[in-house]
Specification:
The complex is a heterodimer of chains A (113) and B (122). Chain A is mostly beta strands. Chain A is 0% helix and 51% strand. Chain A contains no helices and 13 strands. Chain A starts with a strand and ends with a strand. Helix content of chain B is 0%, strand content 50%. Chain B is built from no helices and eleven strands. Chain B starts with a strand and ends with a strand. The chains are: A mainly beta (113), B mainly beta (122).
């Protein structure tokens, strides 16, 4: 199984500042024939189901604000919120869909400083 | 718009069975792989199972393999999860989710239901 490890476990950022989340996979999730990283990011607010933000490591889902961006390749990935808004308070998860079983990171909790 | 509505959760004793349902609408149900994902109280996300768009293939997470069965009824636009030999560690919110890439089995999830809570306790 591919183990996904996120860091930090929690993050406190001031409004308007940048928030950066890290995700590391135990093996590469880059599929060479199509040069795609099988890595997604989700946002989960309290009492709500997760919401897809980013897929293929850097493609923003329709309707997601452009302050959210994803980067990285192979085993190391980053989700960035360029200018934190109050509504961004949530837990953020990375997920690999390179191989079964699908696995998630443990999540990073984002708070306002 | 895409809607996924889970039902069937509740409180059951260890060793008992439960069947969850997920009613789908707003899209061509028969064209998408469908998943179950669970979340224990205060914990992270755990993928449970997937069934292919045509129902011919499925995969399970190690923790539920041999106890849970995923199925779908295309005529009713409904996804199911039959859960047998339930354990206290199966206590969680169970979400159904649509695979983002329609015919792919292992993919990200672009739509989620609100979930149904399963509690396994004596």
């Amino acid at each position: 199984d591919i183990v996904m490890t996120q860091s930090p476990d929690s993050l406190a950022v001031s409004l308007g500042e940048r928030a950066t989340f890290n995700c590391k996979s135990s093996q590469s999730v880059l599929y060479s024939p199509n040069n795609k990283n099988y890595l997604a990011w989700y946002q989960q607010k309290p009492g709500q189901p997760p919401k897809l933000l980013i897929y293929w490591s850097s493609t923003r889902e329709s309707g997601v604000p452009d302050r959210f961006s994803g980067s990285g390749s192979g085993t190391d990935f980053t989700l960035t919120i360029s200018s934190l808004q109050a509504e961004d308070v949530a837990v953020y998860y990375c997920q690999q869909y390179y191989s079964a079983p699908i696995t998630f990171g443990q999540g990073t909790r984002l708070e306002i400083k | 718009q895409v809607q996924l509505v889970e039902s069937g959760g509740g409180v059951v004793q260890p060793g008992m069975s439960l069947r969850l349902s997920c009613a789908a609408s707003g899209f061509t149900f028969s064209s998408y792989g469908m998943h179950w994902v669970r979340q224990a109280p205060g914990k992270g996300l755990e993928w449970v199972a997937v069934i292919s768009y045509d129902g011919t293939n499925n995969y399970y997470g190690d923790s539920v393999k041999g106890r849970f069965t995923i199925s779908r009824d295309i005529s009713k636009n409904t996804l199911y999860l039959q859960m047998n030999s339930l354990r206290p560690e199966d206590t969680a919110m169970y979400y159904c989710a649509r695979g983002k890439v329609d015919t792919a089995l292992i993919t990200s999830f672009d739509n989620w239901g609100q979930g149904t809570l399963v509690t396994v306790s004596s």
